[in-house]
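> forwarded from #structure-qc
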């Protein structure tokens, strides 16, 4: 299973646990195979009546050896990856979107997707260096909520942001720069918006910052330079989603 986890995704993805498996099925994803314990099989029977068609009972040791996971859960599922979204089409449809630029940690991407789903944000865009929202760890951290947020890959971040701005979208770069506008002062009435998040170490490039219509910061106490990008996304999605 581990060989299919690539940055831009493969033909399949792994769902760890009964909850993520249930949400994958509810999202219309097609199961290929499920390894489960007897307890896991009982749980599967509650939401997947035909689970026996693609499920295999396995001991904990066998599940560990097959998957390479140190602590395999009671249910570990393999699904066909859904067709990817088209970035240009998604650009025309979304109301509140997030762009993850060089966010390469799947835990952060999964957390961002979970925050977006919780706050009602409806589109996630990623450059080619950012982690896969359907990676095993991303899905586990998002508790399957990544299925509620359509996502698309973008080849050129700055070019895409300029296109969004030309379409009337407020493009908001989140940055710790002291000359950026405090988030509490942002006023966007009825306007579509795209929140742009960068890597934790380097932040957003000058090119991307220059493409955005607003540069916004979360005010913090002296001596604290930034928040974890996932935590920052929660604050920003809550504050800017009103």
């Amino acid at each position: 299973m581990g060989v299919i986890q690539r940055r831009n995704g493969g033909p399949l993805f792994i769902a760890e646990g009964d909850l993520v498996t249930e949400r994958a099925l509810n999202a219309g994803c097609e199961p290929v195979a499920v390894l489960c314990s007897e307890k896991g099989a009982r749980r599967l029977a509650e939401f997947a009546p035909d689970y026996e068609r693609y499920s295999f009972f396995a001991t904990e040791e066998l599940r560990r050896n097959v998957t390479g996971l140190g602590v395999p859960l009671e249910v570990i599922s393999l699904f066909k990856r859904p067709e990817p979204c088209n970035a240009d089409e998604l650009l025309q449809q979304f109301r509140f979107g997030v762009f993850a630029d060089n966010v390469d940690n799947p835990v952060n991407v999964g957390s961002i997707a979970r925050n977006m789903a919780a706050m009602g944000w409806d589109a996630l865009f990623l450059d080619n260096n950012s982690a896969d929202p359907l990676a095993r760890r991303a899905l586990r951290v998002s508790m399957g909520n990544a299925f509620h947020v359509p996502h698309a890959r973008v080849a050129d971040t700055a070019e895409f942001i300029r296109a969004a701005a030309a379409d009337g979208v407020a493009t908001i770069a989140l940055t710790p720069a002291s000359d950026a506008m405090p988030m509490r002062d942002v006023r966007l009435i009825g306007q579509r918006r795209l929140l742009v998040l960068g890597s934790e170490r380097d932040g957003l490039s000058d090119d991307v910052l220059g493409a955005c219509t607003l540069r916004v910061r979360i005010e913090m106490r002296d001596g604290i330079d930034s928040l974890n990008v996932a935590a920052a996304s929660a604050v920003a999605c809550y504050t800017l989603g009103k």
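QC bot note: Residues 127 and 157 are 6 Å apart (CA to CA). The chain has two domains: 2-80, 87-240.
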